Amino acid sequence: LEVKARVIALTSGGKLAVLARENNFPVIKVPAGIQPRAAISYLFFPVLKATERLDLIKERSGEIEETLNILQELSKEYGAKSPLKNNFAKKVAMSLYQHLPLVYGSEGLLKAVAMRWKTQINENSKLPCFWNVFPELDHNEIVGYEIENSINQQVKIVYLQDKEGFSRVEQRREITRKIIEDKVVEFIVCPTKGKGKMARMFSLIFLGDLASYYLAILNQVDPSPVACIEDLKKELAK
């Protein structure tokens, strides 16, 4: 407000909505009562369209259409009614059950996706999970596999593979895999689907979201509440 910036409010209500309306700022309403991590479509696409209309980015309707088509296909393939033998999301969840997941992506498109996988497994599945990216992990984390120990024998690595990514990154991944695959339980490769960047990114976001949901079911926990976070907030508010 102080710098007279153009403001658009994205909110489910509350003080932010009141402040925006008092100053005649446009308000994009997000449905209330859902966990923020479950509202990704309500948060991502309105911001995308707003930046389009402000001429900050080029028009992306073609990419959005491809993304929606990919997600519709995957919702059938990964859905609850799809049997395990045909359902990669369920297979990933079954593989990660009773193990420590490490999610590896690559700098660029899949860096944020790898972090979302980690946080979805934390919050939905109620499990520890860690993430890193190529090429950075080859400068440090790879050394952590040199010594055979009981901790590494609980590790399963999920590698998020961008089929349209740089060949040099894939070369690093394959060399790294050869070095460490006998030190961990399993190295699970999860490839992107689609052609455009948006479709490829969301194809793996969707896979991770559903895998974490199925993993929560295996752990016999409700994926929605985050009791530890709520307890932390209560303590901080005292």
TrEMBL record:
Keyword tRNA processing part of the UniProt annotation: no
UniProt GO BP: carbohydrate derivative metabolic process; carbohydrate metabolic process
Keywords linked to the UniProt accession: Isomerase
SUPFAM superfamilies documented for this protein: SIS domain
Matches recorded under CDD domains: SIS_PGI_PMI_2
GO molecular function: carbohydrate derivative binding; glucose-6-phosphate isomerase activity; mannose-6-phosphate isomerase activity
Bifunctional glucose-6-phosphate/mannose-6-phosphate isomerase C-terminal domain: residues covered: 86-236
Segments crossing the lipid bilayer: none
Family: Belongs to the PGI/PMI family.
Protein's UniProt name: Bifunctional glucose-6-phosphate/mannose-6-phosphate isomerase C-terminal domain-containing protein
Natural source organism: marine sediment metagenome
